[in-house]
Amino acid sequence: xxxxxxxxxxxxxxxQIRIRFDHRIAKAGDLAVKETKTGVSGTNVTADxxxxxxxxTGLTTASGRPVSEALxxxxxxxxxxxxxxxKLDSGQTLRPGARGAVALGKGAVTGASATSTALVPVQxxxxxxxxxxxxxxxxxxxxxxxxxxxxxxxxxxxxVSGDGVSVRQDGVADKVVGQTIKTVEVENKYLKATFAPGYxxxxxxxxxxxxxxxxxxxxxxxxxxxxxxxxxxxxxxSPFYQNWxxxxxxxxxxxxxxxxxxxxxxxxxxxxxxxxxxFALTITKTDDVxxxxxxxxxxxxxxxxxxxxxxxxxxxxxxxxxxSDRVAGQDRDPGYKWMAxxxxxxxxxxxxxxxxxxxxxxxxxxxxxxxxxxxxxTMQQGxxxxxxxxxxxxxxxxxxxxxxxxxxxxxxxxxNNSFDTNVFSKGNSARPYIDLWAGASMKFxxxxxxxxxxxxxxxxxxxxxxxxGDVTNVNANGATEVxxxxxxTVTGRLFSPAIGQKLHAxxxxxxxxxxLGTSTFTGKANAAVKLGxxxxxxxxxxxxxxxxxxxxxxxxxxxT
Length: 560
What we know:
Layout: E1 5-10, E2 16-21, E3 27-28, E4 31-32, E5 43-45, H1 47-53, E6 54-57, E7 71-80, E8 83-88, E9 99-104, E10 109-110, E11 120-123, E12 144-158, E13 172-187, E14 191-196, E15 202-208, E16 213-214, E17 250-256, E18 269-275, E19 278-284, E20 306-316, E21 321-325, E22 329-332, E23 353-355, E24 369-373, E25 384-389, E26 394-399, E27 407-412, H2 415-420, E28 434-439, E29 448-450, E30 461-466, E31 473-475, E32 478-484, E33 489-495, E34 502-509, E35 515-522, E36 529-534, E37 541-547, E38 552-557
Antiparallel strand pairs: 1-2, 2-8, 3-4, 3-10, 5-7, 6-9, 7-8, 9-11, 12-13, 13-14, 14-15, 15-16, 17-20, 18-19, 20-28, 20-29, 21-25, 22-23, 22-24, 24-27, 25-26, 26-30, 27-28, 31-32, 32-33, 33-36, 34-35, 34-37, 37-38
């Protein structure tokens, strides 16, 4: 019996086709389709791959373009191994009321002994609907601050040990309780940010109002883990300074030690300044703790200057993300040898250096792991990193100064661990987020030195991206994606947080300086401006963003 497509439906908004297979797909062309035990896949499929897998008959967009020519570059994803969701590019919808069909190519998928290539009917609704988010792009901007807000962190109940710092495994109860935490909520027309100075000095949440999605991860149920088994009063053998940890989420500073530092769960001092329509929250902490039972690896050598570590921990998950980084290579932690079987080497045998290609996709993390980005401070277009959700093309990016924070650490629980864990499972802290850390030193337990009287400062900016499948360059003025295919066809996309402002984008042949396309546009809250053109087959292209006065705000060049 031949197996194939069981049915195909068009989404209510008219810009997606959901294909249901009558069996689990093992491979789609050359692409392995992975699935966790609980049925989560997240495998991404490009437009070229879709055109090789499927044919469409009688289906066009409202503007008359064939469906196969109106796909996004990141054209589809498998939410599970028996469902494929195909996405039209932003601004495109299928022709209302149209009737057409979709069919698999011969040998396009594997997972059954024989594959049916029969046409399967597709009916497009006559009217499209959108759930909406309540966001009014034409509404006035405003600033609202609530300094007396609270949130409740659901977590397993625990008892702090006699040393006043650690938690032992037998000190964790079999019940979940709600811990009320004081917060400061700040919102304007576009964002709602929640700060928790009293719990690790963190920016707990940042909701982008046009989508109502939180750009950060918040743990629905916290559970202590990583305990020390050493006797009380002796140096611990936990991975963590306090001999335990519990994941909450958001973005927070960790100092003066590696991992999550000393102060991830304690109050920080804070001060609020609000005047003339602006808000500032200053959060400070004096390093005055020396926990005697800390693990011995947290004892740094003494000498001139202060040995310290500083890392900004970002707990990112705007949905089911894949990483999008300006990292040419990575240096895996020696404890996670499985990575060497996924990526190609980028250095001598045994060096641990790997290229970063497949591990940009969350679905390719078969297990938990640590790896460190390399050469960030010397890379062109390299002062950023972040994640993109390919199910809704929404991302979050951190922009910084890699000369000041040259370290970048990846942490992932692994696809299976992340999605197969019951959040109420006591002691199992695996969750579906990606930790990307920015450090003043290159790796954990490789401290930097702060000289007497020395002050270090830098700016970190966190911004949402919309309508981008990948990122070429980012700064505080926007995010861009520039691609040139083998034939020299150029596609450029640009999203700017300057929503409602007049901007100008120019796509240029990087070799000749010739303009390939221009667009004067008003920044939108949920869509990128798109440009296209043609260069020589081995050529590159540059996208330039300027404001109304002609001042350059951002440039991005393909191939760098």
